[in-house]
Amino acid sequence: MDEQLRVGLVGAGPWAQMIHAPGIANHPGTTLTGVWARRAEAAGELAVAHGAEPFEDYTAMLSTVDAVAFCVPPAVQGPMAIEAANAGKHVILEKPIAESVEVAENLAAAVSSANVASLVVLTRRYAPETKELLAQLHRTGGWTGADGRWLTGALLDGPFSNSPWRHEKGALDDIGPHAFDLLDAALGEITDVIAANVSETGLWQLILQHAGGATSTLSMTLSLPLQPPFAGFTVYGPNGHRTLNSRDTSAQDCFTNLLDDFVAMVHSGTTTHECDVRRGLHLQRVIDLARRKAEA
């Protein structure tokens, strides 16, 4: 690229340290210009490690960048991303994109009004093996159902076990966007949540309706001590079945692929993508419907 995108990073937690900061700093089309976090000390440490400037004032950081990548809880991300879009900054969003449908709608509207690029970090969608399977499914067609399982003990141990928002919201908000996105991309848009239940241990089980008549089932939890964790999706129909359970592409490489798309969008003036903010809004609505169905 003739000119690198100046990117500011919001957040300095484990995922920002492992994925966002090194990904942005090492990508040929981006430079990590600044870091802001609620804990100034953490922002300073992460910024120094990657040659960026730490900021204590978020608005001040916005004035120095072309784009902002967020790696903070959804309740924090929503309002801050709206401010970034209103300032004309392109945005990379974590999932879910906001704490509520209302804020997600406001964010999508701000991105649209500002005519800026947006991408949501739906990690597996940027993996070549996922793209290959989805292309195959669409070429074949005729799929009538799918079964998804995403089972981890992330709340029990590991870098995200002390995440307050994950403990509060559970698998529906953390795993849900990834799982809904893959099922939706494979079978067609999710139009309804037929049934939803969450156990006392945090196991979510759902039945989903898709446009065109297909249905899918999904089980997901953050509280099952499986080693290693398991994530798999099987799509089936008259033409047999296809399964996606490969994680050959690392999360870091998936993020690099996301940055490839993001840089290309910004330089070409493109503001639409299959994983843009509108996708995030759709997934937010599915989350909201599932939670209301479970509470009914």
TrEMBL record:
Has the keyword Phosphoprotein been applied to this entry? no
**Which parts of the chain span the membrane according to its record?**
none
Q: Which one of the record's GO molecular function terms can you name?
A: oxidoreductase activity
Indicate the segments forming the Gfo/Idh/MocA-like oxidoreductase N-terminal domain, all copies. Answer: 5-117
The cross-references to Gene3D superfamilies, in alphabetical order and at most eight, read:
Dihydrodipicolinate Reductase, domain 2, NAD(P)-binding Rossmann-like Domain
Query: Which UniProt key words apply to this protein?
Result: Oxidoreductase
On the tree of life, the source organism's domain of life is: Bacteria
Name the chain's protein.
Gfo/Idh/MocA family oxidoreductase
Taxon lineage:
Bacteria, Bacillati, Actinomycetota, Actinomycetes, Pseudonocardiales
